Amino acid sequence: MQYLKRLAGLTLMVLAIPLMIPGLLVVGICFLLPLGIVFFLLNLIGELFLTLKMGWRKRFVPWYLLRELQAGDQLIVEYPTLGWRISRLWLVPSRLFHHCPHKPPTIEEERTAFDDRNDVFAVHPFEQWIYQNVTTPVRGGGVLIRAWNGSRLRKHFERTHPGIEVIEVSTASAAMKQERLKDDPLRDRHLKS
Predict the structure, then answer these.
(1) Residue 163 near residue 73 (C-beta atoms within 8 A)
(2) What pLDDT, in 10s, does the model give residues 113-171?
(3) How many CB atoms lie within 10 A of CB 97?
(4) Where are the alpha helices (DSSP H) in 75-149?
């Protein structure tokens, strides 16, 4: 009797799989595709507003107008989100970058930190400093060169300015940590840790 129940269950499952595939396609097309388009448009609009805000604050220079870089200037490719691979390209003037008390993490340090990190709010001190002093729209000192897909310009600047160093930084965790601690009275002490 139990053998017949198992056989009936397997038969039902084999028959249900071909019916599930069209159902999953319908769900994907009717729900997930419009949701993806909405998130894409929201991110695009957010990047356009950031560009406008930086323009109003005189902190935006389009990449094609940027002619010469000063000795010691740095280019930072910032990844401000955790999964969307949106990137921004920032110019950090040498006078600001020399005040940074931390060195950029090496690839090995990044990999080790990512493997060991259980807390999404754990932030490398260099990334925290970049977020607070360079890329924050209100207080930062960096100049936005390109929003939305700034990492595509990396090769262009490495080719046209051979001595320039381009550093990649993810500031999503730093931004989330800042937002989480916004109402915390001990905020400054947490941000230093």
Answers:
(1) no
(2) 656 555 556 677 888 888 888 888 888 888 999 988 888 888 888 888 887 888 888 88
(3) 20
(4) 94-97, 107-116, 125-130
3-state DSSP assignment of residue 80: coil
Question: Greatest CA separation found in the chain?
Answer: 83
Structure tokens at 44: 């695009």
Beta strands in the chain (DSSP E): 74-79, 88-92, 143-146, 165-170
CA dist., res. 128 & res. 62, Å (int):
25
Q: What angle do CA 21, 25, 28 make, to 5 degrees?
A: 135
User: How far is residue 106's CA from residue 174's CA, in Å, rounded to a whole number?
Assistant: 18
Other CB atoms within a 10 A radius of the CB of residue 144 amount to: 25
| Residue 163: alpha-carbon gap to chain centroid | 25
Instruction: Locate 60 and state its tokens.
Output: 């935006």
List the structure tokens of 99.
């005040």
- Cα–Cα dist 47/42, whole Å: 9
Q: Which amino acid is at 160?
A: T
| Full-model pTM | 0.74
CA distance 58 to 61: 8
Q: Are 88 and 78 in contact (CB under 8 A)?
A: yes
Q: Is 80 left (phi over 0), alpha (psi -120 to 50) or beta?
A: alpha
